[in-house]
Amino acid sequence: MRALGLFSSMISTVVPRLAYLVVMASRAATDEAATFELAVELVRPAGRVANIGVHGRPVTLHLERLWSRDLTITTGLVDTSSTPTLLRLLAAARVDAARFVTHRFGLDDIIRAYDTFSDVGRTGALKVVLSRV
Length: 133
Description:
The two termini are about 30 Å apart. The protein is built from six helices and five strands. The chain is extended and about 55 Å long. About 35% of the residues lie in helices and about 20% in strands. It has a three-stranded parallel sheet, with helices on one face. A two-stranded parallel sheet has the order 4-5. The chain is of the alpha/beta class. The protein folds into two domains: about 1-80, NAD(P)-binding Rossmann-like Domain (Rossmann fold), CATH 3.40.50; about 80-130, no CATH class.
């Protein structure tokens, strides 16, 4: 529910029926299906939903409700072309990345960090930070 909660709180401040909505999927999301379905429901007719990331579970596309809405749904992985912008936002403290960090490891513990991130169902990892200790 953590991902859905973050997404829901984000969209509560914008007007429903947006022309474009982006869903950031993650294997760490505990309710990816609900997040995706909410995005598809909120976007306006003839709108676009960009589903970015990796789903860890199947997600239902409700064509019985969508066929007349003329939606465009795209999928893909995170594009690194936005990395410089993201780094500038982080450096300027305009994005609080700490709320996405669920686990921290030293560089000497990289194998355990990778195991933690790759077994989201057991660990609940959203983002793992590696640092020098």
